[in-house]
Amino acid sequence: MINKIPTGIDFIDKDLGGIYQHRAYLFCGESDAGKIALTSRFLVEGLKKEEMCLLVTSGNIGNYLVESHGILNFDFSVYMQSGFFNILEYADADSANAADLDQYMLEIKEFVEKKGVERVVLEALPMLEAADLKTTESNARRFISFLESENVTALISLGKPRTLGASRLEGELAKAAAGTLRTSIKVSEETGKSYYSIDIERMVGLKQPYPSWDYELIKNRGAQAIIKREKINYSHLEENITITKNNAGR
User: Fold this and answer.
1) Which CATH homologous superfamily contains domain 4-243?
2) Which residue ranges make up each domain of the chain?
3) What ranges make up the beta strands (E) of 90-150?
4) Are 10 and 17 in contact (CB under 8 A)?
5) Looking at the DSSP assignment, which residues form a beta bridge with residue 181?
6) d(Cα 201, Cα 181) in Å, to the nearest integer?
7) pLDDT, tens digit, 9 for 90 and up, residues 83-96
């Protein structure tokens, strides 16, 4: 029997019952469209359940932790000290290439098996890109199969493709993953305010038409809550709550 686990995003968990355990999912979309806000919640949900969690990133770790703390009012450093939250950083990932893929997977494998990692968030995977589509397709399938063979539940976070190779990689990962969720920024015609959207483009176990959600990030007492737009009743919110369009995550 395949179990589902919560993502930490209320409306996805309520509508879908979470996502399938030990599968890999792709979160993609334009910059500043909320990917950090979403993937951070996935990690927080695991940490609160005392699950071992891993972030694989090519970004600045300090910036990620500060931004996540500002979004969630959640102190990852406590869980780093206890060993439940772990980070693998690739400072030179921008110069990585397909030849580094085997070493990249080996390092993740050793870390996952040594620590007993259950949840993984991965950012920026240039080592999967190749000069030709066939190799990129093979790399994407190999990488998804590798993650799932390690019995982790993984979210792969990709920004808007800036090159043809990155665009090809996104397409191949979308086909190989158990599901693809795309984030975007929209503007309300009525108020002119920005809000966010998650569209499911493909999901194992779901039939079309796939669901989508419009949501806003509501800030209260130092943390942001992701709230489904059609359910917001501003009269029930405290006066110090403001809708934020900045610091919403990638």
Assistant:
1) P-loop containing nucleotide triphosphate hydrolases (3.40.50.300)
2) 4-243
3) 119-123
4) no
5) 27, 200
6) 6
7) 899 988 876 555 55
